[in-house]
């Protein structure tokens, strides 16, 4: 089992199974984390799936596309480890990934 650890806005931490080829956003939503709204359902148009990626995995992620970068720029909670979880396809390389759900804008 590949693992994805999700930290909620309240600081609660839960490890769930990460399925290869499925977006981190979909994994989080399918495991009942209500903090992650993901209003656009993964079309990279709303930034309501904003997460902070654990620094040990940040460089393993695919490069950020311009549309994702622009959406994150609009967030007042952007950090160096910010990503949109809809743009991260889970894979074996990401086994053990930890993400924190960002505050709402």
Automatic annotation (TrEMBL):
Taxonomy, superkingdom: Bacteria
PROSITE patterns per record: 2FE2S_FER_2 (PS51085), ADX (PS00814)
One Pfam family cited in the UniProt record for this chain: Fer2
CDD domains: fer2
Residue stretches making up the 2Fe-2S ferredoxin-type domain: 2-105
GO molecular function terms noted in the UniProt entry: 2 iron, 2 sulfur cluster binding; electron transfer activity; metal ion binding
Gene3D superfamilies: 3.10.20.30
Cofactor(s) demanded: [2Fe-2S] cluster
Family listed: Belongs to the adrenodoxin/putidaredoxin family.
Name listed for the protein in its UniProt record: Ferredoxin, 2Fe-2S
Organism: Bradyrhizobium erythrophlei
């Amino acid at each position: 089992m590949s693992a994805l650890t999700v930290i909620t806005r309240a600081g609660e931490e839960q490890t769930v199974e990460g399925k290869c080829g499925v977006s981190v956003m979909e994994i989080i939503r399918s495991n009942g984390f209500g903090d992650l709204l993901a209003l656009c359902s993964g079309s990279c148009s709303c930034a309501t799936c904003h997460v902070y990626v654990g620094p040990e995995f940040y460089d393993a992620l695919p490069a950020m596309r311009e549309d994702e970068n622009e959406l994150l720029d609009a967030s007042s909670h952007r950090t160096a480890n910010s990503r949109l979880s809809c743009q991260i396809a889970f894979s074996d390389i990401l086994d053990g990934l930890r993400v924190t759900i960002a505050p709402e804008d």
